[in-house]
Amino acid sequence: MSVAFPAGAWALLGLAAVLAIHLLRRRPRRETIATLFLVEAATLSSPGGRRIERVRHSVSLWLQLAAAALLAWLVMGPRVLRDETVQRVAIVLDGTASMGAFRTQAEAALARRVARWQSRAARTEWLLWESGLRRPPLYAGGDAAALLAAVSREWDPRWPAHDLLPALEQARESVGAHGLVLLVTDHAPAVPLGVDRLAVGTPFDNVGFAGARVDSDGQWKALVRNHGRGPASRTWSTLDGGRTVPGGTMTLAPGEVRALSGPLPAGELTLALEGDAFALDDRLPMVAPRPKTLRVQVGDEAGRLPFVARFLSSLEAVSRDEPPDLAIVTAPAGVRPQTPCPAIVLRTDAPGTRLLPAAAGGAHALAEDLDWSGLLVRESPAVAPVAADEVAVWAGARPLIFVSATPRGPQLFADFPLAGSSAERLPAFPLLLHRFVESVRAGVVGREQRNVDTGAELAVALRGDTPAVVEAEGRSTQPALLRAPLSPGVFHVREGSEERVLGAARFADASEADFAGASSLDEDSQGDGRVAARNRRDHPLLPWATLLAGVLIALDWALLARGGAR
Amino acid sequence: MSFGAPEWLVLGPFLLFAAWRFRSLGLWALLRMACLLLLLAALAEPTLRRGGRGLDVWLLVDRSASARDLVAPRRAEVEALLERSRGGGDALHVVDFAEEAALRDESRGFTPRGTETRLGSAIRFALGRMPPGRPARVLLLTDGFSTEPLHGLPETLRAQGIAVDLRRVTHDRTRDYRVESLGLPARALAGEPFVIEAVVAGAPDGDVPVTVFREDQPAGRGVAHVVNGRATVRFTDALGSGGAFRYSVQLGAPDDPVKGNDREEAWIEIGGGPRALLVTSHRGHPLEAALAAQGFAVDAVTEPGRLTVGRLTGARLLVIDDVPAHVLPADFLAAVDGYVRFQGGGFLMTGGRQSFGSGGYFGSPVDSVLPVSMELKQEHRKLAVAMAIVLDRSGSMAVGVGGGATKMDLANAGAARSMELLGENDGIAVFAVDSEAHRVVPLASLGRERDEVADLIRRIQSAGGGIFVYTGLAAAWKEIQKAPYGQRHIILFADAADAEEPGEYQRLLEEVTAAGATVSVIGLGSPTDSDAAFLRDVAARGKGRVFFSVDAATLPALFAQETVSVARSAFVDETTGTRTGAGWLELAGRTLQFPAAVDGYNLGYLRPEATAALVTTDEYAAPLVAFWHRGAGRAAAVAFPLAGEDSESVRAWPAYGDFTQTLGRWLAGADVPAGIGLRTRREGAHLVADLMFDASWEERFAARPPAIALFEGASGEARELTWERIEPGRYRARAPLRPGAWYRGAVRVGEQVLPFGPVGSPATAEWAMDARRLREVEALMAATGGEERSDLASIWTAPRPNPTSADARPFVLLLALALFLVEALRVRMGLAPLRSHATVEPEPALAPAPAPIVETPAVRADDERRRRRYGAAKRS
Fold it and tell me: Any idea which of A14-28, A208-222, A392-406, B348-362 has the lowest mean pLDDT?
């Protein structure tokens, strides 16, 4: 129950007024009578004496107190929840990694808030989101206990920094204009109007790994940063094949970044720092990166071109094995050759004499930021265009370089005679071919080794006959979208019995590891009773209580009239 | 007063019966009867109605570009129907709105300017004019596609008890062609050809004329042959100079019912080496050669009116040399602050009679960027000024501009600002002009009566009609013509689309200028408005300046600029000695032999955090060369002319080249180190920025992660975006783009800045027809208790919102409690009850004889017993 007019509580002073009235000595009432026979009795009473006397218990006193209390309660406007009232509350849990350090506090604060908000409507529909919107709602329903259980069970705050706004907008849209939106976080980000913040962070010092790389010569280099405001010492070690090798102790000044380095043994290596309150950046796994091997088939005529030989030598991890992943072929003017796989199609026919108009780059990813102003091409017959061709470079209205989709993969056409053009000397042309080759390599099914960030999406080409699984820390998951594990460690992506990726997931988001900006905040913009007022109605006993007050008053007067109020 | 549960009143007769039947209760006593009647009233749930019996309906008529043609045929019918069906006490108020809102009665037929649907602003405009307590509903006659969010409105409307109803008009989409996409490379090099590709979609199949525009100038024409609902047209272009350029394609299909989706635009950035943008009034400026020798591609602009914000893109250094503020496009001027503070650009203003305060830069958007301030100080004023301000108070000035203010309010604020900037010996006269000139403030020296004068100015209200320009100017000239002041100046403020009565203005202005007085014009509107040419001519003939602004909020700043230009003795045209300060060594490796004297300079004051490298030796010790860091960028002021008039001795200065090159190098800042790149692109209605970096940057980012800021338009506030780590060596940030807006931004990497933009959003807000906006209007309707109305007359009988009546129960009950307590006190004190006239007291059996008044205590049982014994004894 609540009250509509809390200020009506002042009416309780009526109780004090009743008591004060009864503290006054009762004064006789003046009466005019027609005879003197009562004079004797009248003389028994004295008009003098004290004006204040002890409060004497009497029926009248209790009736008056009861009536005053009842009237005060009525003045306050008692209200009860409407049976049909429903409020919709969307809670957005900050899923960024820094929240992991405040999980306990956040759950406790959220439980208190849920209890408070639950009392504002007969039924509350809860909707629980994790920021980042990478997962469907963690909970949707009317059970507060189940909601809190879902928070404990489902909330996984290990994601790198991301924008909270989309989740808040989604939440706002889900609950409508009357709904409540709460963001549970560890700092005080700017939020849209109508979103309350429940921040549970407190600043603390943290030291952790802030990045690493493995050079082509097999040397690793790792960065350790002291995010705190005071100097900090940490011991570090390496874990190599289950063996822990002490690395040493280092003392870092506030904000200092220290580099560690060493040779990478075959396989994998994990660096470990002495633990602190934020554990995600205390382990740093690494593997030697190895791209997928691309099997390239070079046509006879293309193989004789010096440009093709130079281009092939600039590619990393290629082989001439069969079956090919990419073909480099030549074709006569105006012909679309059949190739067994994605292909680069060049032309070696003789050029005409007249120069085509200046080449111009189109809005195509392969041609982006490449300078085509030096590409001089002579007139020659062109391949008949197809609607699905994506043109990267034009000469007037004539496509010069375009990508054509075929059932066996994309074909990149350099639809002009190389001889007599400036393409070989122009940096943009091999760069464009490189981009195309890498896009083909990305689609090749093979094994590779990668160092990635925790939680990163993994673009892995799969055969698709069996579901891919991610194995990490002895556990295997079969996600709809392949991602690196959210905790640092070595992982494998397997498709059936074949390994597709040997990876090392490492946490390297320096912005999440810095807790200097953590803060606490407890906002409740609807705490002024507006929601309660909307969801409540008059107490059903209100009219009966009013009647009762009238009856009590009348009873008091009746007793007084009969002189039996004692 | 009304009752929510009147059935309880049926207890009234029972109460009266009880009072009659049980007289010993004393219910006929006034206090007791009143107390019980109040309780009875409380049972019946009394409510107090506020605001009278009638209902106000505020009809908001959408006159935006997308709804104008749809609404026009229905408007008169809707208004007539509402007028016919309203009852006694009801009232209909009509508000026309687009980007602005105007009450039909106040604006006298003025059509609000603009194309967008600012629905939220229009509702707030109506709310601001509703009488408090009066029951009201808002009826929207619109297509429902607001171009601004309606955040906060539901709460505001509910708090005021206003319901929003909707009468929707819908678009016919047959024969609608649209630009589905406009493809353009994000970047190209100067001179490099690039392809512009537009995809046109729609039905039926046929030919659709297409025009491509570069910065709103036609750059090519073609025809899209629509087959199976689609067609692609391509154009090729190449640009010779750096910067960002806006391309747009426009379809020309006749009878297209939805014109708004016939246009799409995109930006391309033309790159090259380091570029310096030199905006100057002097052709062949010596700075050009000096900066070119230093490796800058110098982009010299001598027609400042054609500058666009995009010209700042890729420029490492902006120099404004002896060009008055009013000839620079307002957008460009407003963009300079963000260019310096966020995008890390360098900004140099050099002296001359058209620079700094004399050039009207006081209070302009670049004022805060400069290391010198240009305020008026009493001792540096020119001869006393007599200034007459002619204010347009026509109907268009009643239009709301948000925040409850009208254009008139902002114009008044501008005039008051001018008054504040004038000195005690200056005089001001103010005229409010419609079809007559009303003298609001007669010409008088300001002295100590500023507050009174300001109060008079701020109380000017719009009165309808258009401004009679000649009448206003003639009255102003008459007022200051014979005034004993050294300078006489008239500021004419007028609506650029509603300035009437040129009269014999040419002759009048000849007379004015012949007498040494000047006339400047501040036009509210754009330079392309219907009367803009006339206003430009007034300023030209009046030998003054002309400003146009579509944003009324800028009026106070424009009045301030103009006043300072007139009243301040900013340019000292005497040969003045110089003194070298130590500051030069902060930006140069070695000292410089500065000229011993300059031929003239702009008087300014060094800002607290700025450094002066050279100051004058006169009594002002004014900074001649000053510089400072401003946000991520750097700014400098050279107060003396580097070219043209008053620059002879400086141009003969042997170290001229060394000085300008050193300053230019410092302002341009350091090159961004290799190994990092920023790519921005638009994905639907989102901006996507990718920051790619090699391993050499890991350590720097470990110590200080990169930061990205985005700001809307020329002068929008910067907002920080969040980077997501996509993979080692790659961050990504995303931000939603508001339709019709354009954005700039910057990525800060250590001490360096990677600027980007402008980036445009996919469509004009007005024609985006975002379904979310429609849902928002529907949600607003639902949240406030409104409904979609097909039967318009029913609005007059719609339920009154609750807040128009207040629950009276607490007050009634409180009164009952008070009466009850008073009655208890009365009984306790033994006072006689108050009787109502209806009370019938039993007459005493005998006529009352003078008898002693005795006080008897209340009847007690032992007294009764004693009385009985006494009676028995007497009888015996």
Answer: A14-28
Q: Tell me the per-residue pLDDT of A355-384, one tens digit each, with 9 for 90 and over.
A: 888 899 888 889 988 889 889 999 899 998
Please tell me which of A1-5, B444-448, B585-589, B721-725 the model is most confident about, judged by mean pLDDT: B721-725
Burial B158-196 (b: 16+ CB within 10 A, else e): bebbbbbbbbbbeeeeeebbbbbbbebbbbbbbebbbbb
pLDDT in tens, A302-320: 999 999 999 999 999 999 9
> Both tokens of residue B666?
């410092």
For residue range B355-367, what is the model confidence (pLDDT) as tens digits?
998 888 988 889 9
B-chain CB neighbours of A401 within 8 Å are none
Is the full-model pTM beyond 0.80?
Answer: no
**Nearest-CB residue to B195 (from A255, A362, A452):** A362
> Mean pLDDT score of chain B, rounded to an integer?
85
Taking only the tens place, the pLDDT of each residue in A384-438 is 888 889 999 999 889 999 999 999 999 999 999 998 899 999 999 999 999 999 9
- pLDDT score at A530: 59
Q: If you write DSSP's letter for every residue of B33-87 in order, what string do you get? A: HHHHHHHHHHHT-EEEE-S-S--EEEEEEE-SHHHHHHHHHHHHHHHHHHHHH--
Stretch 547-566 of chain A: residues touching chain B, C-beta under 8 Å: 547, 549-550, 553-554, 556-558, 560-563
Of B18, B238, B724, the CB nearest to A162: B724
**Contacts A39 to B, Cβ<8 Å:** 852, 854
8 Å CB contact of A77 and B807: yes
Among B810, B817, B830, the residue with its CB nearest the CB of A28 is B830
Q: What is the phi-psi region of residue B502: left when phi exceeds 0, alpha when psi lies from -120 to 50, beta otherwise?
A: alpha
Query: In sequence order, what DSSP letters do the residues of B522-579 get, joined into one string?
Result: EEES-TTSTTHHHHHHHHHHTTS-EEEES-GGGHHHHHHHHHHHHHB--EE-S-EEEE
Tokens at B534, concatenated: 């006339």
Min Cα distance A197 → chain B (Å) is: 17
CA A132 – CA A168 distance, rounded (Å): 10
What is the per-residue pLDDT for B870?
Answer: 59
Q: Given this model, what pLDDT does residue A527 score?
A: 63
The nearest CA of chain A is from the CA of B27 a distance in Å of: 9
Residue type, B755: P
**CB atoms B705 and A510 under 8 Å:** yes
Cβ(B24)–Cβ(A558) below 8 Å: yes
CA B602 – CA B639 distance, rounded (Å): 5
Residues in chain A within 8 Å Cβ distance of B848: 32, 34
Note whether B698 contacts A71, CB cutoff 8 Å.
Answer: no
CA A454-B678-A453 angle, 5° bins? 5
Q: Which residues of A touch B236 (CB under 8 A)?
A: 357, 360, 394, 396
- Is the pLDDT assigned to residue B859 strictly greater than 60? no
Measured CA distances, B791 to B139, B145, B195, B222 (Å): 12, 22, 54, 48
Instruction: Assess B272–A contact: CB distance below 8 Å, yes or no.
Output: no
Q: CB-CB: which of B185, B848, B855 is closest to A34?
A: B848
Higher pLDDT, B776 or A318: A318
User: Cβ distance B708 to B723 under 8 Å?
Assistant: yes
Q: B387 in helix, strand or coil?
A: strand
The verdict on B771 touching A (C-beta cutoff 8 Å) is no
| Chain B contact for A432 (CB, 8 A cutoff) | no
Q: What is the DSSP string of B324-382?
A: -GGGS-HHHHHHHHHHHHTT--EEEEEESTTSGGGGT-TTSTTGGGSSEE----GGGB-
Q: In chain A, whose CA is at the least distance from the CA of B678?
A: A369
Judged by a CB distance cut-off of 8 A, whether residue A456 touches chain B is yes
